[in-house]
Amino acid sequence: MSHIKYLLLVSRQGKARLMQWYTPFTPKQKTKIINDLTPLILARKPKMCNILEYSDHKVVYRRYASLYFICGITNDQDNELLTLEIIHRFVETMDTYFGNVCELDIIFHFDKAYDILNELIMCDGSMAESSKKEILNNVHAMDAIVSNDHLDRVLS
Amino acid sequence: MGRDKILIAYNTDNEFTHYDTIKKIFGKSLDAVEHTPNDSIVKGLRWRTKYYSTDFDLYIDQYTSLDQWLEDLRDPECDVLREALAGLIIIDDIDKTQVSLLSTKGSPIVHQDSFLVWCDTTGELSDDETENMNVEIAAVGGSLEIIRLISGEKNEFNDTVGVERVKEIIDTYPWTNMVKQLLINTQNAPNKPSDRDNLDSIVQKLTDARSHYQSLDKDDDETDSNSFANEIAKEVSERLSF
């Protein structure tokens, strides 16, 4: 069972593009985590290990093009390799949804990226759905509702 | 004040043709305006991505001594210029001393939100060595990024490198004057509900709209009914274009 503490998406230039917290942290703690982890991970060479220890927990990260996906995990409960797979599944799903996802897609459709993430990981940090097809169906259903709402507004 | 200017500085002693590089980066934008390769200011350029377009100016300067040039740029007289810069691109052979000075955290060369890029014109450094230098810069919290111009589009990790990486940096810069594009084709639009659902839903909406239009027509309120019909036509055409 996976219990991710947080998931951060940071660009190669050190800008946070997405952040989702699954464990309660104070705003000060969140800022500290982002400020500590961003230079720490950006300063790691491509062939270095993707798992490191930080504070009282472990951090698993993976780089895709210009984006770093960073997950804080619970030492005793989480499996590092499974976390890497979850990150990969998140990227694969976004890739299918956007069609070769890039940083610009996430900047301009961050709501969709969060929707996909929320379908994949529950609010307690455990995995909610592993099927890419199912996640995409749900996100497309949400899109259809939004689209219909827009037409309804015009009709009314 | 909006930061909508990109400053390019190149070494006059370098055999590398700076204009070729500028053309590779800003090709489409430059083609749209009148200019000559020797212009030091090109105004009214437009940067386009699939999500937005933005107007910007290109300032091109040259130097023989980068030390001196950077010293001049740091001068308080250049405060206004530095504040207006979206980014600074240096086109030159890599100079490790200058790189270490530029990569210092809080280097006052450009605003903290602006990008700072060194386009390395030598072929001496490999992609790995360039990557290692960037990692070292990131370790000290610097914002400088070294980009090897003599590279393909992607490296072994599928990272964008070379000129394409410069374009990517400009793409992701938070332009204050950007104008968002309307998503009008399927390639740009991330939402792809099934065609069948989409068509059923549109037909249903059109039926509803027809009834509503007829009720408006009965009241002889021609302006309202025409306006309603136009809105529906616009909405349906947008839906069908997805």
Automatic annotation (TrEMBL), chain A:
Any single GO CC term annotated in Swiss-Prot or TrEMBL for this entry: AP-1 adaptor complex
Any one Gene Ontology BP term: cytosolic transport
GO molecular function, a single term: clathrin adaptor activity
Domain spans labelled AP complex mu/sigma subunit: 4-144
Primary localisation category: membrane
Keyword Transport included in the entry's annotation: yes
Pfam families registered for this protein in UniProt: Clat_adaptor_s
Localization per record: Cytoplasmic vesicle, Clathrin-coated vesicle membrane; Golgi apparatus
Keywords: Cytoplasmic vesicle, Golgi apparatus, Membrane, Protein transport, Transport
Keyword Transmembrane helix tagged: no
Record-stated family: Belongs to the adaptor complexes small subunit family.
Protein name: AP complex subunit sigma
Protein species of origin: Maudiozyma barnettii
Lineage: Eukaryota, Fungi, Dikarya, Ascomycota, Saccharomycotina
TrEMBL record, chain B:
InterPro entries linked: Irc6 (IPR034627)
Gene Ontology MF terms in the entry: protein-macromolecule adaptor activity
Family, as annotated: Belongs to the IRC6 family.
Keyword Aminoacyl-tRNA synthetase attached: no
Keyword presence, Ribosomal protein: no
Primary role: Involved in gross chromosomal rearrangements (GCRs) and telomere healing.
Keyword terms of this UniProt record: Chromosomal rearrangement
GO biological process: vesicle-mediated transport
This protein's name: Increased recombination centers protein 6
Matches recorded under Gene3D superfamilies: 3.40.50.11960
Lineage: Eukaryota, Fungi, Dikarya, Ascomycota, Saccharomycotina
